[in-house]
Design goal:
This protein is mostly helical. It has one domain. It is built from four helices and no strands. 20% of the residues are buried. The mean pLDDT is 84.
């Protein structure tokens, strides 16, 4: 038998990609929010973004997937 394989989790990569989009949107909006708020927005992106778009974000395809993720962050960073 072969060597047993390690379980691979994609969740950290998903969170990192979603957090990258959240930070980018925060900077575009000109806001300076605490890291806990950025993590909250990243979790929102992870739970509401379609799996195919999330997969594209993790793999580095920043076209349509980035647009969809930024659209999800609009209510968080829009001025009141």
């Amino acid at each position: 038998m072969g060597k047993p394989r390690r379980k691979h989790s994609i969740a950290p990569a998903n969170f990192q990609a979603a957090r990258r989009v959240a930070v980018m949107c925060m900077r575009v909006a000109g806001r300076n929010d605490p890291p806990s708020y950025i993590d909250h927005v990243a979790e929102h992106i992870m739970t509401n973004l379609a799996p195919t778009f999330m997969h594209d974000l993790v793999r580095g395809n920043w076209r349509r997937s980035q647009w969809a993720a930024m659209k999800l962050t609009l209510p968080f960073f829009a001025p009141p």
